[in-house]
Amino acid sequence: MPRAGLTADRVVAAAADLADEVGFENVSLSALARGFGVKDASLYSHVRNLQDLRTRVAFLAGGELVDRIADAVAGRSGRDALAAFADAYRAYALEHPGRYAATQIRIDQALVADSPVLRRTAEITYGLLRAYGLEEPDLTDAVRLLRSTFHGYCALESAGSFGPPRDVQRSWERVVDALDTALTHWPREAAAD
């Protein structure tokens, strides 16, 4: 019987908080159970195993991230929307390092297909890029450019890899400017027939 007060949502939220404290890779069912003051077995009424827990944290964090991005880009277009998207992404990654790390894991494709969070993320991202006049296959390439640029910058910044003399914020703004220029002047590739 499930322990009173424990729910799947509470377990996942606690795991996300723990990930921000100790790192996503260091989250374990044992550590989570200790935090609740229960035995490990009590958690299995709410999650199947550690992989299930990590996947649920990834979906929780992905939902939080896309909500932030959606709020930031609402009513904006072009460079303004790109900057709002980028800033919301970066702020989330830096404020919630464990949750953000969860958004980077590989998830079973069967779960991805049924995920409203991932569909919403795609809709917002593709909407941003369609405003630049991009269509497939260029959309996919542009998504990959944005994701790798944002992720790489955030990973390096959070690791303290950017030193003086250039202000990190000013460099970020220049990266967004460069991405805007790249998207505006994207070399179009014809869709394969």
Describe the fold and architecture.
The chain is built from 10 helices and no strands. With 193 residues, it is mostly helical. It is globular and about 55 Å long.
Features:
mainly alpha, single chain, about 70% helix, globular, 10 helices, about 190 residues
H/E topology pattern: HHHHHHHHHH
Query: Shape from CA axes?
Result: globular
What is the mean pLDDT?
93
DSSP strand tally: 0
User: Per DSSP, what share of the residues sits in E-state strands of 2 or more residues?
Assistant: under 5%
Counting helices, strands and paired strands, the structural category is mainly alpha
Low confidence ranges: none
Query: Helicity level, as a percent range?
Result: 55-70%
Main beta-sheet annotation: none
Instruction: Count every helix, treating DSSP H or I runs of 4 or more residues as helices.
Output: 10
Radius of gyration: 19 Å
End-to-end Cα distance, whole Å, is 56 Å
Task: Describe what is shown at a glance.
With 193 residues, the chain is mainly alpha-helical. It contains ten helices and no strands.
Topology (elements, then pairings):
Layout: H1 8-22, H2 29-36, H3 40-43, H4 50-73, H5 78-95, H6 97-102, H7 109-113, H8 116-130, H9 138-158, H10 168-184
